[in-house]
Specification:
By secondary structure, this protein is α/β, with parallel strands linked by helices. The protein has 2 domains: 2-47 and 125-300, P-loop containing nucleotide triphosphate hydrolases (Rossmann fold, 3-Layer(aba) Sandwich), CATH 3.40.50; 57-115, Alpha-Beta Plaits. The protein has helices spanning 15-25, 43-46, 74-78, 99-103, 141-158, 175-181, 195-210, 226-238, 251-258, 263-266, 270-286, 289-300; strands spanning 2-7, 30-34, 49-64, 84-85, 88-89, 109-124, 127-134, 164-168, 186-191, 214-220, 242-247. The strands form 2 sheets. The protein has a 9-stranded mixed beta sheet, with helices on both faces. It has a two-stranded antiparallel ribbon with strand order 4-5. Helix 1 (15-25) packs across helix 11 (270-286), helix 5 (141-158) packs parallel to helix 6 (175-181) and helix 11 packs antiparallel against helix 12 (289-300). 45% of the residues are buried.
Length: 301
């Protein structure tokens, strides 16, 4: 089993477009994991059929037993989140920290698990997929990402572990990204030729280096600013980071997205061709050999 995380350091660089394209090119040789649980959108391109769903309990909430409460107000005095007013617990402000339950002399307050999302195991025409949905305003997105990845790895092992897990990572460098990166074999960083793209690329490169994960870099829509593209390439060369491709701006990508499809699934223009080249390099770095690459190509073409 090999795992590759497609990350970006920021939103809007096109990592989901690449992850969906890799799923198409690796047809029946991949397990797909959408780790962007706060705003999942990979399902829009892969049209998964849900086979199984399970509830996700990512946090706790305080519950008061009014029959035991003696109105001593110790809980209200100690709650730093001001979630208890007039001896009533406001679930919107409660952080589930447990202080109120700890200080209550009558043990009138307990912590209960709170459902904060759902996890789905699905099937696509390209391979199995695991995705999730974190409820708006809920926390523990990193924990949910870990659950998505664990399920994806389990599916991979059920196929004798010979598949590739493609992880569509969330943007940024926070907890969900850390959960997406931990233990992967390769991180493909998708950036764009903008100053913010360069800065955020450097930040996520530092994160990959911290976890001792091999990074690869590609630029999406490279031709919208050739000067910044050259700056990014020079940075990669000086930092000894392998630069694996430049994907041009291509209206075929937009047309494919409007159809709810991956660009490599229905078009063969400049962007699709560049993505195919990046996929071949990713396969080579994963060390899966020509047999898998050949199999993927037969299915994709």
């Amino acid at each position: 089993m090999k795992q590759v995380a497609v990350i970006s350091g920021k939103g809007g660089t096109g990592k989901t477009t690449l992850a969906a394209s890799f799923a198409v090119l690796g047809r029946n040789q991949v397990v797909i994991a959408d780790a962007d649980v706060d705003a999942p959108d990979l399902h829009l391109l892969l049209s998964p059929q849900v086979l199984q769903s399970e509830e996700f309990f990512g946090s706790k909430i305080a519950i008061m037993d009014e029959n035991k409460c003696t109105e001593c107000a110790e809980c209200e005095r100690h709650c730093r989140f001001e979630a208890i007013k007039d001896l009533r617990i406001d679930p919107l402000h409660c952080e589930g920290c447990g202080v109120c339950a700890y200080v209550c002399p009558e043990e009138a307050i307990t912590l209960q698990d709170e459902r904060t999302g759902d996890v789905y195991t699905s099937e696509t025409k390209f391979g199995p997929m695991v995705h999730a949905n974190l409820y708006p305003g809920s926390e523990a997105s990193g924990k949910l990402v870990t659950q998505v990845r664990n399920l994806a790895q389990r599916l991979c092992l059920e196929h004798d572990g010979g598949l590739i897990v493609i992880i569509d990572g969330p943007p940024g460098i926070g907890c969900p990204v850390i959960a997406s990166l931990a233990g992967v074999d390769l991180a493909l960083i998708v950036t764009e030729p903008t100053l913010s793209g360069l800065v955020d690329m450097k930040r996520v490169l530092d994160l990959a280096e911290h976890f001792n994960i091999e990074p690869l870099v590609c630029i999406n829509k490279f031709d919208i600013n050739l000067k910044n593209t050259q700056t990014i390439r020079e940075f990669c060369r000086e930092s000894k980071i392998e630069f694996v491709g430049m994907i041009p701006f291509d209206e075929e990508v937009d047309r494919a997205l409007k159809l709810g499809r991956s660009v490599v699934d229905i078009f063969d223009g400049p962007a699709a061709g560049a993505i195919r080249k990046v996929w071949k390099i990713v396969l080579r770095h994963l060390g899966n050999g020509k047999s898998i690459e050949s199999s993927c190509q037969k299915e994709a073409y």
